[in-house]
Amino acid sequence: MTRRHLRTRRATSLLAATALLGSGLLANAAAAPPGASSPPASYTTTDQGDGTYTVPLLNSDVPDVSVERVPAAENDEGRDIYYMISTTMHLSPGAPIMKSYDLVNWEIVNYVYDRISIADPASLRNGQNSYGAGQWASSLRYHDGTFYVVFNTNNLGGAILYRTTDIENGAWERLPLGRGLHDPSLFFDEADGGTPYIFYGSVSAVRLNDDLTEIVADYPNIFSASDYPGAPFIGGLLEGAQVFYIDGEYYIATITWPSGQGRQVVLFRSPELLGRYTSDSGENTYEARSGLNSDGFAQGSLVEVVDDAGESAWHGFFFRDTYPLGRIPALIPATWQDGWPTFGDDGVVTRGSTFDKLIELNPAEELLARQQSIVVSDDFANDAPHRPYMDEEWDIPGPPAHDGSLLGLELIDNGGFENGIEAWSINDTAEMTPTTDAASGQGAVHVTGRTTTGSGPLQDVTGKVQHGITYDISAAVKYDGPDSPSTKQFFITAHYGGSTYTNLGTGTVANGEWGEIAGSFTVPEGQSLQTMRIFVETPWTSDPAADPDVHLMDFTVDEVSLVGRELPEQPHEDEIAPNGSRLADQWQWNHSPDNRYWSLTDRDGWLRLTNGKVVTGDYVYTKHSTRDDLTYFEEARNTLSQRTFGPTASAETRIDVSGMRDGDVAGLAAYSRSFAYAAVKRVDGANVLGVVQRLQPFSARIDHEAVEEFVPGTTVDLGAATEVSIKADADFATNDGQLWLRFYYSLDGENWSQLGSSRAGPLVMDWSLSHFMGYRFGLFSYATQEVGGRVDFDHFLLSDTLTAAGEPLDAGVLDAAIDQAAMLRESDYPAEGWHGMQEALAAALQARAGTLSTQNQIDAPQRALSLELARLGVLAEAAPSLDVDVVGGTRCVAGRAVVTVRVTNQEPVAVSVDLESDWGRKSFPAVAPGKSAVHAFTTRQADLPAGSATAEVIAEGVSAVNEAQHGPASCS
């Protein structure tokens, strides 16, 4: 039986009344409670609340957007729904699905995957990482009842396509496509029966088979920048292509970056999807026009908006590089002329531009939309909804077969040349002679008479190297030529037989000095190891003899080493299996987590992070040719993160450090490649709190301990304290392009002090693409000495108020929300929303009863309660009801109070009525349309306080319950 509301003739509910009063649409509604006010909008919306919004659209990092409309006729909600996907690279879960009804306010409703892979790079395992890699530039499409997502991975086997029939509550099927497709755009050509294509790069396409499981045709270079000579708005690369079919024409929106200009949008239009491949002349059919060249707004999507008359209008949904906050999207209205759009106000869009909202919501929906956010405070109560991606299953591979006797041993014979040139020969043509000019020891080998760049000392290691093992290889090299360059690159190269050569290690050596060339490698499974020889060489050139001093110089080699690491750590089934803990949708892990070492269930209301490994200092950025070192902080596996937001953001947490072990470090960070954090370090049994900052410039090799030393003047000895509260205030507004931070601490949760006397920073964007995302808040813990230490985080509380602003604490909005919630009646609202509101109210009351010492402690419960109140209002308005009047009253009979209940049926069918009070029950099996049922309950009391009776009304399987309120009676 379905339970619904009664549509009664009494006063409108308080929540709806407040929303309607604020809009001026309800003149005679019940008055709002004292102090009630419209709550502030979420931290990540620029909705102004007056029918306008500003751009950029979200005050946070949401890059590479792809937006898809699901028409009202094709969903269960009866109105157009918009979904958006974005890039989150190495974070897990990844490929967030965001939802909106008005294209301005967004909430996260799902992720495409929990883990992009269980391989080492996605899991910060065995020295591998996915910084600057992972999932990039997803394309989201809806076709014939199925949702599709395709994105490229540049370190995990290329493009992957996912699909589901339920974008919010369904699991996604994963289909690797087996090759890289840079910035892919999935497109179904409805003019050709829905044939699926993926456009990519700048600009090429592939056609998929009908079930989208494999690529069946290639169409390289449909057009490129060189096809438009003299076009001032096209230059450099074309990137981020997205394809649309509008009014009989195919449109492709890309970004471009002409020399001396900023990033901008260029549009291409053609009646032929594949251009020159299908045109009668075989020539390029795409004409081009500048789409938007204003303030750096560029890559993104076109999005369709359909008005009440069914007319379509396409608009721009692009993003802007706004670091260090991130790449921030913007909804930009368009006007169309001659089949081309002009975005913004005559093509001009700047930060802060204001536009009218394209889609109007009713007041209750508007109130809810403005409360929704892509960041959230959290009490770690493990009450987040279960999502299908949490049940993702993986096949755990067994350990590779290997010969353990060859691991950890030196595999090069006579690598120090202490026995002359024994075990060595020459690759190509040259002469080797022993020499005592050694990097270490007494021997080395000198190479002269080289005729090719590959001429160098060689050793056969066939039978020593195995698949599935990581090897470290190195050598010392020296050259000394007066006519040779001041520096020279050298390689250690493997020759597997035939024409298969692979560079295993490299380095740049200074003339006249010993230098190291080195690298790490794993032989791919598909590479035969029937033959393997390694040798030292200089970079290949087609005619080295033309400049022998540069390409064929003599050189000396010493200390050649090849060592296989111990069998790498394998994925563990418990590392991947669900652990019973559910985090809010706004959280993402820094790489895929190890589920054995985090929990929301080990301690109620706390996030526990346990150190399952010791940092090594051996991790490097594999995206960089220089293989720059990662810091210990970046190597930490289970760092939990959320986006920051602008222009100011504050995060607060409390940490129980009683479970830390010597060498452990744990705290609260704001991070990209530059970072700053406040953390507790356990040193010789003592806990010390302090601030660490890592600023540019970066060097490839680092002293890890020195990088993560506390800033002088910021340290506090915690003594016997086992808990400490930390607050990070992030200021993006004071200096454009810079993030400044202040950290505060409290040992009692009430009295706060700044850590150090100055700000941390400036933190700025690192354009090496290693961390190509906006700054994030992170909760972290890592071990430097032993595993098993742990820390517990009690909460994560957000605010946009900075302590340094000096504003007094303001609980007015919190109190108004509490007052508003306390006056609502359960019978007026659906159970699905009432429970959530009551939990938020209880948390708000608990916070209000305590000592509030920061604005974070006020804002977090207020925003949670305001969100649930707004959600409840929408549910109440949307819930179907029975049109029945229920009126309670009292009268006196023979000196005793009588409670009366009148139920009037306004439905077109008969209803049954069950009345219940403290003085009995009464049923009416059939009250005809337009008729009333009345019952009087005798109380046998002379004086009666105000109260209520309950009326349950049932019609055709639908049940509704309401209270019949009555006033006091005095009959004595």
In short:
9% of the residues lie in helices and 39% in strands. The chain contains nine helices and 60 strands. Helix 2 (363-371) packs antiparallel against helix 9, helix 7 packs parallel to helix 9 and helix 8 (831-849) packs antiparallel against helix 9.
Topology:
Blueprint: E1 2-6, H1 14-23, E2 52-54, E3 66-70, E4 81-85, E5 91-92, E6 94-100, E7 107-113, E8 135-143, E9 146-153, E10 158-164, E11 173-176, E12 185-189, E13 195-200, E14 204-208, E15 215-219, E16 238-246, E17 249-256, E18 264-270, E19 287-292, E20 297-306, E21 312-322, E22 326-332, E23 334-337, E24 340-343, E25 354-356, H2 363-371, E26 425-427, E27 431-435, E28 444-448, E29 456-460, E30 471-478, E31 487-495, E32 501-510, E33 515-521, E34 533-537, H3 548-551, E35 555-564, H4 573-576, E36 588-590, E37 598-599, E38 607-610, H5 632-635, E39 640-643, E40 648-656, E41 664-671, E42 675-683, E43 686-694, H6 704-707, E44 716-717, E45 723-731, E46 739-746, E47 753-754, E48 760-763, E49 776-783, E50 790-799, H7 812-822, H8 831-849, H9 855-878, E51 881-882, E52 884-893, E53 896-905, E54 911-917, E55 920-927, E56 932-938, E57 943-944, E58 947-955, E59 958-966, E60 969-970
Parallel strand pairs: 1-51, 1-59
Antiparallel strand pairs: 2-25, 3-4, 4-6, 5-36, 6-7, 8-9, 9-10, 10-11, 12-13, 13-14, 14-15, 16-17, 17-18, 18-19, 20-21, 21-22, 23-24, 26-29, 27-28, 28-35, 29-34, 30-33, 30-35, 31-32, 31-34, 36-39, 37-38, 38-50, 39-49, 40-45, 40-50, 41-42, 41-49, 42-43, 43-44, 45-46, 46-47, 46-48, 52-53, 53-56, ...
Helix pairs in contact: 2-9, 7-8, 7-9, 8-9
